Amino acid sequence: MAGRIDQRLADLGITLPTPAAPIANYVPFVVTGNLVVISGQIPLVDGKVAFTGKVTEDITPEHAKEGARACFVNLLAQLKAATGDLDRVKRVVRLGGFIAAPGTFTGHAAVMNGASDLAVEVFGDAGRHARSTIGVPSLPADAAVEVEGLFEIA
């Protein structure tokens, strides 16, 4: 029987992918006490980076927002691997977002809402979180966005 969060994902039409393997010398997540730290996830869809380039130069902010949403789906896949059951999640504590964009771009927060909005859609009030969103000149694999997360679990 699917758990409450698994059912919510199904209702949203979201199927979690196989968690991505690290591309360098790090682990995908660390569980310490009642916290899970998930390493930054890029917008992989079907094993390929689906949202690439710099926002406003190669990709629209609206499309990059979809990329941030895809990053959060990948965070959820890692979180399920870390916990075994997403119903153990008590709180989305913090999300960190990295947006590849030129120095003149200032709409980072709106792009990152793709991840933040999905966190609330999936977890309700427990999905409301602190966050930071940072503009960067480039990201691994030419990803347009990357999102990392901190979660409290039971």
From TrEMBL:
<dbReference type="InterPro" id="IPR035959">
    <property type="entry name" value="RutC-like_sf"/>
</dbReference>
<dbReference type="Pfam" id="PF14588">
    <property type="entry name" value="YjgF_endoribonc"/>
</dbReference>
<dbReference type="InterPro" id="IPR013813">
    <property type="entry name" value="Endoribo_LPSP/chorism_mut-like"/>
</dbReference>
<protein>
    <submittedName>
        <fullName>RidA family protein</fullName>
    </submittedName>
</protein>
<feature type="domain" description="Endoribonuclease L-PSP/chorismate mutase-like">
    <location>
        <begin position="7"/>
        <end position="144"/>
    </location>
</feature>
